[in-house]
Predict the structure.
Amino acid sequence: MNVINFVNAFFSDSAHWHGYDGIPTRVWEHVQYSLEALALAAVIGLPIGLVTGHYGRGGNVLSLVATAGRALPTFGLLVVTTIVLGFGMLPVMIPLVVLAVPPILVTTYEAVRSVDPSPVDAARGMGMGESGILLRVELPVALPLIFGGLRSAAIQIVSTATIAAYVSLGGLGRYIVDGLYQHDYEKVVGGATLVAGMALATLAVFWAAAKVTVSPGVRRSN
Amino acid sequence: MNRFFDIPSDLQHDWFGLIGLHLREALLPVLGGLLLALPLAQLCVRLRWLYPPVLWVTTVLYAIPSLAFFVVLIDYTGQTELTVMIPLTIYSLVVLVPAIVDGVRSVPQETLAAATAMGFGPVRRYVQVQLPIAVPAIIAGLRVATVSSISLVSVGMLIGNQGALGNLLHDAQIYNRPELAWNSVITSAVLAVLADALLVVLRILLTPWMPSGVRGAKTKPAGVRPDPAVPALEDAAR
């Protein structure tokens, strides 16, 4: 099979393992872009989702924002931000964050809103303040679903961060974009394999993080 | 404003032509994805052991960047619309299968028992009871698939002007006309929002028994789950 030969050839060529265009460098760049974008999206999406979910209001506005965010074509947005802001990191981060905020925002909102009301009422009856209820009752119960939203955002970021290469930044997209222009399909397939592998690694990281942070009682009831 | 709609002739379409092309490249894959997802999801509901491996495979496929998909396919299908539509079909499938499986599984056991007691066979029960009850979940999946499909078509620009409205991005760069890039982004975003709204209307038409409008969502029927891909990936990670 063609594709498997490409993958073999790409990974067995030792020239692909060294230097500024080597696999370790590109992987590290890709990880950096992805982490930055995910962190930014989480900083925006999590607090808003938690607070709106706690009060159970603003669902309509949130789903509007989420649809609008999803509707903006990531690639087109990248071209527009580069035209407006010039080349650099910021024009790449904006489309990635726009891509990642909707799943985080909407799942967090839904996760907190759908927490069983009886423990929340019990906590309120015991005199716990609103922020205490949110952080110590609702957040731990909603955590598995919130992780799901973060994970789906992370996977989309990892596979979309390849577009950074289109505006001459690094990351695994370089192999795909360069390979396209050089008609070097070995490179393209190799790059795609690396990206898919990194997405799987992302799944594994989130699985491990959920194992560590989700309280055993919550996990059992799910 | 005139220059905004003044499409360079190398695209061989006017603005409306590009819109038509864009919709065709984006919506046919969603339709194809739905046609493939319905039997596949039914299989997954029937044979429980099949669902986790299907989720794993689709999750991996979902993780392959669209650009890489396009470039690899050029080898087989050339620089044609088909090259853009095949990956989009697969992405739609990935979103739709879990949405349909969750929707069909959410049908209460009593409802199924009642249908059986009324003499419904398995096929009739599926078509007349399970599918209609799963409609909200299926439409929720279709909304995500449609919107992301419309926004992904633009990437087709990179494989030789197969990006419909996305081709405006290329022209914006070579002719140094930023307004064409704005046109591309705004038009495809508006198309996505309109398609999304149409699906919501379709949902309301198909489920007359449900409270219409988002306010009814407070009662939390099964279908208002925002992102069917999320529970899917949730399952896949277990």
The first helix of chain A runs from residue 2 to 12. The two ends of chain A are 42 Å apart (CA to CA). Chain A touches chain B through 57 residues (CB under 8 Å).
